[in-house]
């Protein structure tokens, strides 16, 4: 008997359905649901008592991992990813797999063979309006299904991946907490790669405590992941952060934060930022200030180049990673039509890739392949790597804590530096999705309700990442926490960024502002 139901077969017979109360049908967050019934779970925050959903680009032996792509439709991995294994050992219930943008490429969760995820947030005045008539907005992407599953109370927490903002953006749009940990702290073994030097597994939850509980269970050294941070470097970073944490009484409801320095990066307020988002940020700053923290402006001058550098690097790595899906060794093959010239070299390969990859993935593969050609390598790829280095040194220049992985190691903290940075998670609230039969699939449009020249070229979608990619390029921990609502009544998130390995400090501060 099958251990799971795929979204085509999700029905009211699912043992989880009494927990979901039909919500998945409207939200489209889960694409496979475990058949294991939800046990009577005591109210406690131990991982063993949590129901956790897992993004569909993370391998699970009991359910498919499709990456929302035709290329992997029906693929059931023969193993669990290390993260999933750790959760199972801790006793967590794996509820199901969550919808996402194809191979993690997108910001709106509209590039999916499973169709878009619908943001479950209900504007207060719409609470009485039936689901089908409510305003349809994006849940954000690419981990939109994970954020929506948490927001719609279909699970306690969800695993997502964040390459350039894919956890923080949907967390912000759906009004939940989302952590992208420091690069290398959570194992990527068994996670289907998009861009290895940026990919991080992270956690979404209703509150920081739940996220922290899951984080503690999964953030350990994994010898199977060559980029997993060693126990030694973890200890080094967390010892320094622990000393800092102990100097503030975070356990108190109203902690005394005097001495804590919070930086507001001046470059994180681009022209595209919706001004009503600022009210939420101001409220958070006011709260931290009232607890004694000093809030100071800082400058990260290379920020304007981050988005372009990110898209060159991520696409280049994606083109290399996705080369394995040739329909021969990996991926589902599309046979040649009758009468086709079978002797033409690469015919099956080309047909497989052009029919089974969606348009966004094909665009990235082409862009990435071009950036790696001899002609373009120096001007694009190397240039992007130089920008990445500048972004890293910008961060190191403002933080109090030294980067423990930098060489030569700088041992002493800079007293004038900041402990964390604070910025709006996104430039706007959740964008509207198109209505009607067309669910806003990216092959026709970019899913945005408005049609502007930028929207038509997909540029609007890329702009959504403008505030999240710098921390990704630098491998830093970043946490988006809900911080109220925009003028339209939809959730707004505020992000806290810390030095590498200071994830605990980031979560402590996130807890104060949530
Ligand atoms: N929107 C970004 C992209 O498409 C980020 C995606 C991600 O973090 N997985 O690359």
Walk me through the topology:
Blueprint: E1 4-6, H1 17-20, H2 23-27, E2 30-34, E3 51-55, H3 82-89, E4 93-98, H4 144-151, E5 157-162, H5 168-174, E6 177-180, E7 200-205, H6 208-218, H7 231-246, E8 261-265, H8 275-290, E9 294-298, H9 306-321, H10 347-356, H11 359-371, H12 377-398, E10 420-424, H13 453-457, H14 459-463, H15 469-474, E11 478-485, E12 491-498, H16 503-513
Parallel strand pairs: 3-4, 3-5, 8-9, 8-10
Antiparallel strand pairs: 1-2, 2-4, 5-7, 6-7, 6-11, 10-12, 11-12
Helix pairs in contact: 7-16, 9-11, 9-12
Bound molecules: glutamine.
What helical percentage do the residues reach? 25-40%
Order of helices and strands: EHHEEHEHEHEEHHEHEHHHHEHHHEEH
CATH secondary-structure class of the domain at 4-232? Alpha Beta
Mean pLDDT reading: 90
Ligands present: glutamine
Biggest sheet: strand arrangement: 1-2-4-3-5-7-6-11-12-10-8-9
Low-confidence stretches: 436-447
Q: Please tally the β strands and state the result.
A: 12
Q: Which band does the percent of strand residues land in?
A: 5-15%
- Main β sheet profile: 12 strands, mixed
Number of helices: 16
Architecture (CATH level 2) name of the domain at 4-232: Alpha-Beta Complex
> Structural class, please?
alpha/beta
Mass-distribution shape: globular
Question: How large, in whole angstroms, is the Cα Rg?
Answer: 22 Å
- The separation of the N and C termini measures 44 Å
CATH topology of the domain at 4-232: Amidase signature (AS) enzymes
Task: Give the CATH superfamily of the domain at 4-232.
Answer: Amidase signature (AS) domain
């Amino acid at each position: 008997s099958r251990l799971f139901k795929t979204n085509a077969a999700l029905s009211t017979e699912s043992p989880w359905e009494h927990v979901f109360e039909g919500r998945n049908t409207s939200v489209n967050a889960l694409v496979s649901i475990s058949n294991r019934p939800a046990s009577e779970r005591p109210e406690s925050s131990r991982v063993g008592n949590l129901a956790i959903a897992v993004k569909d680009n993370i391998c699970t032996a009991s359910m498919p991992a499709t990456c929302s792509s035709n290329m992997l439709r029906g693929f059931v991995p023969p193993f669990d990813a290390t993260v999933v294994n750790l959760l199972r050992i801790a006793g967590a219930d794996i509820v199901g797999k969550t919808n996402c943008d194809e191979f993690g490429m997108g910001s709106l969760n509209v590039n999916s063979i499973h169709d878009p995820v619908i943001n479950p947030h209900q504007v207060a005045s719409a609470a009485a309006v039936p689901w089908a008539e409510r305003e349809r907005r994006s849940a954000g992407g690419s981990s939109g299904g994970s954020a929506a599953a948490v927001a719609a109370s279909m699970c306690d927490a969800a695993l997502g991946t964040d390459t350039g903002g894919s956890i923080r953006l949907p967390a912000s749009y759906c009004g939940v907490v989302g952590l992208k940990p420091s690069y290398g702290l959570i194992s990527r073994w068994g996670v289907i790669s998009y861009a290895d030097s940026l990919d991080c597994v992270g956690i979404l939850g209703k509150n920081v405590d739940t996220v922290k509980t899951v984080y503690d269970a999964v953030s350990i050294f994994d010898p199977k992941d060559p980029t997993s941070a060693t126990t030694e470097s973890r200890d080094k970073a967390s010892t320094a952060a622990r000393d800092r944490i102990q100097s503030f009484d975070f356990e108190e409801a109203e902690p005394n934060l005097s001495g804590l320095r919070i930086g507001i990066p001046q470059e994180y307020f681009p022209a595209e930022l919706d001004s009503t988002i600022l009210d939420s940020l101001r409220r958070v700053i006011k709260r931290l200030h009232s607890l004694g923290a000093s809030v100071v402006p800082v400058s990260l001058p290379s920020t304007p180049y981050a988005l372009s550098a990110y898209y060159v690097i991520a696409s280049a790595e994606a083109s290399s990673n996705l080369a394995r899906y040739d329909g021969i060794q990996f991926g589902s093959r599309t046979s040649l039509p009758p009468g086709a010239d079978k002797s033409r070299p690469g015919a099956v390969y080309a047909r497989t890739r052009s029919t089974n990859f969606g348009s966004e993935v094909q665009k990235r593969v082409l862009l990435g392949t071009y950036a790696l050609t001899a002609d373009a390598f120096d001007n694009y790829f190397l240039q992007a790597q130089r920008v990445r280095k500048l972004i890293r040194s910008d961060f190191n220049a403002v933080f109090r804590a030294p980067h423990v992985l930098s060489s030569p190691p700088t041992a002493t903290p800079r007293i004038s530096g900041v402990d964390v940075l604070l910025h709006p998670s996104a430039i706007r609230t959740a964008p509207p999705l198109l209505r009607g039969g067309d669910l806003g699939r990216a092959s026709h449009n970019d899913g945005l309700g408005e049609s502007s020249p930028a929207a038509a070229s997909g540029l609007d979608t890329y702009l959504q990442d403008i505030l999240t990619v710098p921390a990704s390029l630098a491998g830093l921990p970043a946490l988006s926490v809900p911080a109220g609502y925009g003028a339209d009544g939809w959730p707004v998130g505020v992000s806290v960024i810390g030095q590498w390995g200071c994830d605990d400090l980031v979560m402590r501060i996130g807890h104060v502002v949530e």
